[in-house]
Amino acid sequence: MLFGITGFEIRYQLRNPVFWVSVAIFFLMGFGITASENVRIGTPGAVHENAPYAISVATAVFSLFYLFVVTAFVANAIVRDDTSGFSPIIRATSVKGRDIVLGRFLGGLIIAWLGYLSIPLGMWAGSVMPWVDPETVGPQNFSYYAWPFAIFALPNIFLISAILFALATVLRSMMAAYVGAITLVMVYLVTNSVLGQKIEYREVMARWEPLGNGAVAEATRYWTQSEMNSRLVDLAGTMLFNRVWAVLLGVAFLCITVWRFSMTERAPSRRRLKRLARQQAREARVAAVPAEVGGENVTARDATPSRAAQFMTRLRVEVRQVLTSPGLIILTLLAIAFTGLTLFISRSTYGTTDHPTLAATITGVQGGSAIFLLMIAAFYGGELVWRERDRKLNELIDSTPVPSWVMTVPKIIAIFLVLLIVNLAAALTGIVYQLVEGARVLGLPEYLGWFIVPAAIDGLLIAILAVFVQVLSPNKYVGWGILFVWFVGGIFLSNMGYSNPLYTYGRTPNVPLSDFVGAGSFWRGAAVLQFYWLCFALILVAAAHLLWPRGTDLALRSRVRRLRSALSAPVLGIAGIALAAMAASGAYAYYNIKVLNRYQTSDDAEKLQADYERKYLRFEKLAQPSISRVTLNVQLYPKQRMLLAEGSYDLVNKTDASLNEIHVRKFSQDLEWLKLDVAGAHLASDDEKFGYRIYRFDAPLAPGAATTLTFKSRLWRRGFKAGNPETDVIENGTFANNYDFAPVIGMSRQNLLTDRSKRRRQGLPAELRPAKLEDLSATKRNYIGSDWVVSDITLTTDANQTPIAPGSRVSDVTANGRRTAHFVSGAPILNFFSIQSADYRVASQMHNGIRLSVYYHDGHDWNVSKMLRAMGMALDYYRAHYGPYQFNYARIIEFPGYASFAQAFAGTMPYSESIGFNAKTDDPEKIDFTTYVVAHEMSHQYWAHQVIGADMQGGTLTSETLAQYSALMVMKHLYGPDKIRRFLKYELDNYLRSRAGEAVEEVPLERVENQQYIHYRKGAVAMYLLQERLGEAAVDRALSRFLARFRFKGAPYERSVDLVGEFRKEAKTPEQQQLITDLFERITLYDLKVKDAQTRKDATGWTTTLTVDADKFYASGKGVETKAKLAEAIELGLFTARPGLGSFSRKDVIVMGQRSLKSGEQQVVLHSTQKPAFAGVDPYNFYIDRNSDDNVKEVTTG
Amino acid sequence: MLDIANLSHTYANGTVALDNVSLSIPRGMYGLLGPNGAGKSTLMRTVATLQQPTAGSIKFGDIDVLAEPERLRKTLGYLPQDFGVYPRVSAYAMLDQLAVLKGITNAKDRRSVVETLLEQTNLWAVRNKSIAGFSGGMRQRFGIAQALIGNPELIIVDEPTAGLDPEERNRFLNLLAAIGDNVVVILSTHIVDDVADLCPRMAVLANGRVQLEGKPGDLIAATRGRIWRKLVSRQDLEDYQSRHEVISTRLFAGNSVIHVLSDQRPDGFEPVEGGLEDVYFSTLSTLRRAA
Predict the structure, then answer these.
(1) More confident residue, A377 or A1094
(2) Please, which residues have CB within 8 angstroms of residue B42's CB and are 6 or more apart in sequence?
(3) Residue whose C-alpha is closest to residue A110's, from A99, A98, A102, A100
(4) Touching check for B128 and chain A: CB below 8 Å?
């Protein structure tokens, strides 16, 4: 009997369109992950698309969203009989309740499992698509798909089926089951994002989080790339525990279901009886009222004037139906929850929260609610268009004399209204966020202008499309399927580079927001395109009116046949006007996108870059004259978004051979040369396509000889572009660097393709690696590609803005509505600098003879005084320990948050609105990264702007690693060495995570090839350990010697080994020499762990015995590890609080000292007067430890 | 008044629903009798402008129904065989809405129309209840109320009494009878008594064709002297069915009463005054034999 029921259930569900639609959707999801390089869930870059790790993660993650589908199968199996009225028949049969429950559960479960096969199938299909770069696909192995399915999909789906089955049984309603499903997903997401972030809960989450996502993360935390590509997740330990737990939990829910399932109808509760009695009384009162009669004489006189009343009636009906539909409240709540999640959970780089700037908040609100607008429009499109037919009302209404538009248009408006409500709810969520986070201005008009109006129009466009699609489709599900394909197709097209808004329905140019200019002039392009698509939508509305499914013969063919008689002058007129308006606005948009600006598909752009490389990279090493002096006069017209530059370069041949040619490039294709001359040379070739000019000297330029280049250029940001607008020259907040508007001398690797698969696709070698450390010819150039120059820059802008360029300001004059400032550099600077102009506030102070200034947007003053303090502190430290500072000023200048970075140019440091300026860094539990980043950028005034590495391996060691180190030292002196652990821990975790994603080869620190995870992350940890072992003073001595040796020195530029050599001079013992080898010349990993810590009280105090596991490894560039012998003195400590957590500080340290540790397990005894709560080995994470979370353990009392 | 000429309809799946149907329907109640699947609903929907036939023409007065469906809809009252309602909407609100859609946009007019109809159909007391909770009879009365909005000249009622208990059915037929003689009312049904009780004219539709058309009295008169009756035991039934043209059988106290059609009186049969039912069944039985 049981299996009979199961079999029926499976056959029944196989005919259910929900099954096939969900199979299609999940297949596409799996397909999308592997077929598109841009879509990844939690897998690092170099891991294969079809790596067992990637399949495991996808299988576990998607099972959560599969919950909604499972609801349809299993909840339906329970409530179906009641809703279809079939239950009395079933209940009268001899089948036992238990058989029914278990049989249907089994059927639903098997169907759910079958359906979920679409994920591995989709992933497999995606990975064999012809366009997928073969390098990103590993071998196809059946077990890679089957094993994750067995250990994640089967138990997870069993569990969620059991939960939903129980829910549906107890609640006996499909809607309630859906509400339950949504609640479950939300609770899961929130719990996961709150607890999952905290290290102390990691273990707990891995164990008990029932879908196994935590367990996968834990089991694979330190997997290398090759492990991710070939290793199956072990079903052992925490993972095994977690899977068994999931199954047991499922069994428990199933038991509840069997216990609660009842074959009989429920008797009404007492409350319900009372309600029924009240209702009856009310009805009796209503019945007593007499009706107004006499209507039999009224004859219907349907006429054109009735349309308005009919329209309003329909509108009221639709709106009322939508507003009272139970789905709305769920969707609105989901949108609010998701938006809230986006706003509250989003964290900046170092885990701090932000002050809610208006632009960032509204951007967050847009991002959080966008997908819901789409889902809601699609959902209600189907519901509303099909409502009359679903409710069997169509024959009644279709035989009334109303035209179809009276039906169609109110439906669109009703959907629009829902979208508006969700919009408003999202905006309110944003406002609540602002209030909670303490915003000073709420900016209601900005919400309206930047979010509500444009998002509402977007929503209207989707609503109209949804209605149109549903009008044409033979059933709701097909309609939804078509919309899904449209949505996913749009993503695919734009991935393939076809993102022109002129042919992608509903797409508009992006409108980046910033507090500096709001939506600036960017909104105009979006508005034009929205108008364009609204015109098209109006045509769709007309078509929906004409093709409206009216009557009982709905074959599309007969509707098209009827169309001829339905065509009327007003409809044709409206469609005609819409078409004309669309053509006009389209032409205007075309003029902006294709004529005033350049539009390229990504394929075209990629090919152009590849051709550029093929044609010109051969000139990379061609000797060129050096620039010794730059004179610039820049006229900036913010309102017109135009920059006019006029200037000259003094050029010298610093090589020992004569030069025949000078190569002059422009970086921005939008830049126009109004004049470009080199004295004593003529234009030999001008490649306009690539902006590459070659001038030939009339007489070769002899060694030591000089010449001059003069130019005049214009950078004019006109009209609007198809996708992202250019944000360098804008109305307020211009931030441009000299490569944008001035000539670049000689060929370099900048602006070439870097993405490996794109390079391979274009037939280029997969990567361009820098010159080897041993290749001394590469010391002729530095890695920035610019020379030491003296500069003289005049910048003119509108009178209400402050012009800023590097150098001492020698004059600042305002006349005729224009403000001109003149800057002269006192010391050599790199010929790579920025100019900025905005309506700035300035905070300024003199600090030991140096003028420190922060230029910021009005209202963004949260961290300004902290920045000033940090600049002062950093300069004090660097001047005392490294050498003199080369300028008499230092400036931090805020720029609009279109990008989030800070950058160090000579004496000027542009710093983004969206990091640092709006960070909340006063929380003592969080990293003070405002100070950290300021200290980092200030130290670049030494490391990069006084010494600069050669263009070879290790080039960034002396700039980025030393900047990280210097900043850490400033932090150490500010906050004390005991607080430094969380910086190191952050850097260490980041390094370990990123090295797994290395696509080419991990190199030792001294050979770093501009890999951020090595020069920033590993560099910080390595340098910190070095100063712990050699002493801070010794490291400083080495650094100041190094600085003195290479200060402002041109070619040959310094190499990383020059710095390592200075360190070696300070290393007194063989252990210290070995440490330098391990840190800089090898990839060294440690594994230090406290296995057990027991303490007992004795006469003198507390004696704590630590069982420590220690190991040391050397890793190859591909991550293969070999054991090394460990024999080092390493810190051990006893604490009253966990190091690195919360407000851990000096006072929490009981004992701290070094002990010599060897490889393997060993016991260490520590004595203390105070009772320890925690014991740790290398508790501050000085070492590069493969698992830094097990260094500290709670102490148990023995 | 309503002239249907050479109407044929074949569905996309090949089903021939109507085969050259021609009818001329005058004012007053007109019964359209036929078994399930005879094509009645297709005919009703086609006349009600809900679908277009494959061939043929329909004229109502001077309205070419197929060419100008909009004009017919202005004067049409239609009660479909099966209809639903919006959830959470009361009878009053629903009727009010339909009145607007039918063109009664004046609020005062509409109020008196809606309330009169609710009173007439005896739904006044339950007007604020959701129609979804109505019994079958109440729902059909609501259906006729909405069909009567604004005094239409053509009223089409498709299978209205199916599933109603005798009392509800009676009440419903009384409502229909009160509509009056100066409008065209087409009552489609498979229940002979509905037609017998109400309709001065009728047609029998089966297999998509009009099998019979005329006044019930004339049709009955045509069978006079040709219907015979006999009480037979159940085990003999089959024997009789093979030997005679049995048009109907009915159980009576454990035995079967059979009616046969014959020009002469068969042995052991007694003459019986034929009813409309005999007319109908004899038509169907002839068809069955032909098939």
Answers:
(1) A1094
(2) B9, B17, B18, B51
(3) A102
(4) yes
Q: Is the pLDDT of residue A1084 over 80?
A: yes
Is residue B102 less than 8 Å (CB to CB) from chain A?
yes
How far A423 CA lies from chain B's nearest CA (Å)? 27
Would you call A400 and B98 a contact, using CB atoms and an 8 Å cutoff?
A: yes
DSSP track, A536-577: HHHHHHHHHHHT---SS---HHHHHHHHHHH--HHHHHHHHH
B100–chain A Cβ distance below 8 A for any pair? yes
Closest partner residue to B82 among A310, A392, A565, by Cβ?
A: A392
Count of CB atoms situated within 10 Å of the CB of A971: 24
Whole-angstrom Cα distance, residue A371 to residue A361? 17
- By the CB < 8 Å criterion, does B246 face chain A? no
Q: Nearest chain B residue to A556 by CA: give it.
A: B12
Span of A332-346, A920-934, A1073-1087, B68-82 with lowest mean pLDDT: A332-346
Contact, B249 vs B258, CB < 8 A?
yes
CB contact under 8 A, B104 and A300: yes
CATH code of the region A1083-1198? 2.60.40.1840
Q: Are A212 and A156 in contact (CB under 8 A)?
A: yes
pLDDT (tens digit per residue) in A95-118:
777 788 888 888 889 999 999 999
Domain boundaries, chain A: 2-260, 310-596, 1083-1198
Question: How many alpha carbons fall within 13 Å on the CB side of residue B266?
Answer: 17
Candidate from B45, B82, B112 with C-beta closest to A298: B112
* DSSP symbols for A620-634: TT---PEEEEEEEEE
Residues 6+ apart with CB under 8 A from A1101: A1167, A1168, A1169, A1170
Write out chain B residues lying below 8 Å of A401, CB-based.
Answer: 70, 73-74, 76, 101-103
Confidence tier at A1162 by pLDDT (50, 70, 90): very high
Task: Considering only the beta carbons, identify the residue of A313, A392, A399 that sits closest to B84.
Answer: A392
Is residue A925 predicted with pLDDT exceeding 70?
no
A-facing residues of B in 153-182 (CB < 8 A) are none
- The neighbour count for residue A488, using CB atoms within 10 Å, is 15
Q: Which residue has the higher pLDDT, A267 or A533?
A: A533
| Interface contact A565-B85, CB threshold 8 A | no
Contact residues, chain A, for B126 at CB < 8 Å: 283, 287
What is the per-residue pLDDT across B44-72, written as a single tens digit (0 to 9) for each? 999 999 988 999 999 999 999 998 888 89
Instruction: Write the residue in B51, B84, B118 that is nearest to A553 by C-beta.
Output: B51
- The pLDDT value recorded for residue A795 is 97
Residue A279 touches chain B, beta carbons under 8 Å: no
Chain A, window 398-457: residues with a beta carbon less than 8 angstroms from a chain B beta carbon: 398-403, 406
Question: In the structure encoding, which two tokens stand for residue A1027, read together?
Answer: 């100063």
Of residues A298, A396, A562, nearest to B113 (C-beta): A298
Q: Residue A9, SS3?
A: helix
Q: Is the pLDDT of residue A1184 over 80?
A: yes
Helix (H) or strand (E) holding B125: none
Distance CA A805, CA A819 (A): 13
What secondary structure letter does DSSP report for A131? T
Encode pLDDT of B242-268 as tens digits: 888 888 888 888 888 888 888 888 888
* Identity of the amino acid at A533: W
* Greatest CA separation for chain A: 114
- The answer to whether the CB atoms of A309 and B125 lie below 8 A apart is no
A 482-501: CB under 8 A from B: none
Q: Which domains does chain B have, with CATH numbers?
A: 1-75+153-165+183-222 (3.40.50.300), 223-290 (no CATH)
